[in-house]
Backbone:
């Protein structure tokens, strides 16, 4: 199923749907393939630290809740000095996609900083349902 | 012929009466409707106990609520659907009374300050404590909010709800409250 098709069946559109363009969305299965490739992306969780500690994508880093000013600052610091064409994958999954307070600000911030290769992991329901329950790899800890 | 029909009717009434007596006897088991409240991951197992201070520094121990139906709600200040359903939890707490029913909120926020401000703003009438990854893991993983558990009077998880499901939760609460 294409990303567009999935979005069309999702709940009412939200800010994230309209601001993050479909080509920038990344399906979980695509990310799993990327993680097994030699050119691994930088994967940043931009949501809740508690949820990150409970389970996160192996190799991903916690970068702050982008829905807060402190989180945006932490994200900015983390990407300082990186090449602007570096592939960066951001994800949250704290809430249903349309209600997520973090993914859109994170994407916008990276865009504003000039990053040209940013992908947002598309988790329609949440990280538990769309990643953990699907059997994709996880690890825990802060 | 008429006699035979009458005796069949009497026989049927006797069987019906026996069935009524059997199913209305105080066996200690909840009604069938209440027994049906078992769904979601973790349903049917004992609710993991915890003992933590709430935001008012009062000890909240889950096992101390045995004998009451408990609604355990994992939420966070940044979770829109969570904030939407919390006023209804307040209403239920008031409506069903603390003798039979208790809502307990578990915030999965990273910091306490925002939680205190939100609880104060909403004027919550039930205890809220800070959760963490350990409590989330104990409850089978809280990886997307809101997540709510309905726990029966014996301390067993009877239902797990992912996302806002107020109508379903209300029906299940009523079933459990009617079961004793």
Residues:
């Amino acid at each position: 199923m294409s990303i567009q098709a999935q979005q069309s069946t999702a709940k009412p559109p939200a800010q994230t749907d309209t601001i993050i363009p479909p080509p920038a969305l990344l399906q979980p299965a695509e990310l799993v393939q990327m993680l097994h490739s030699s050119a691994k992306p930088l994967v940043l969780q931009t949501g809740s630290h508690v949820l990150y500690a409970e389970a996160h994508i192996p190799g991903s880093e916690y970068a702050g809740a982008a829905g807060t000013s402190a989180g945006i600052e932490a994200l900015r610091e983390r990407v300082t000095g990186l090449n602007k064409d570096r592939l960066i994958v951001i994800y949250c999954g704290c809430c249903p996609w349309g209600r997520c307070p973090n993914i859109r600000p994170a994407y916008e911030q990276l865009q504003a900083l000039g990053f040209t290769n940013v992908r947002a992991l598309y988790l329609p329901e949440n990280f538990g349902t769309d990643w953990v329950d699907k059997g994709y790899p996880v690890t825990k800890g802060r | 012929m008429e006699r035979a029909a009458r005796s069949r009717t009497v026989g049927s009434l006797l069987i019906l009466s026996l069935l009524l007596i059997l199913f209305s006897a105080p066996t200690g088991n909840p009604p069938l409707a209440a027994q049906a409240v078992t769904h979601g991951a973790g349903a049917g197992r004992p609710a993991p106990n915890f003992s933590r201070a709430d935001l008012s520094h009062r000890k909240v121990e889950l096992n101390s609520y045995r004998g009451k139906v408990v609604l355990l709600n994992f939420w966070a200040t940044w979770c829109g659907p969570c904030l939407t359903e919390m006023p209804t939890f307040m209403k239920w707490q008031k409506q069903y009374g603390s003798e039979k029913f208790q809502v307990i909120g578990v915030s999965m926020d990273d910091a306490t300050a925002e939680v205190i401000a939100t609880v104060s703003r909403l004027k919550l009438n039930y205890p809220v404590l800070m959760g963490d990854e350990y409590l989330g893991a104990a409850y089978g993983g809280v990886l997307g909010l809101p997540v709510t558990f309905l726990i029966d009077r014996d301390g067993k998880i009877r239902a797990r709800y992912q996302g806002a499901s107020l109508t379903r939760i209300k029906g299940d609460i009523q079933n459990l409250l009617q079961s004793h």
Notes: Chain B has one domain: 29-177. Chain B touches chain A through 20 residues (CB under 8 Å). Residues 2-24 of chain B form the longest helix (23 residues).
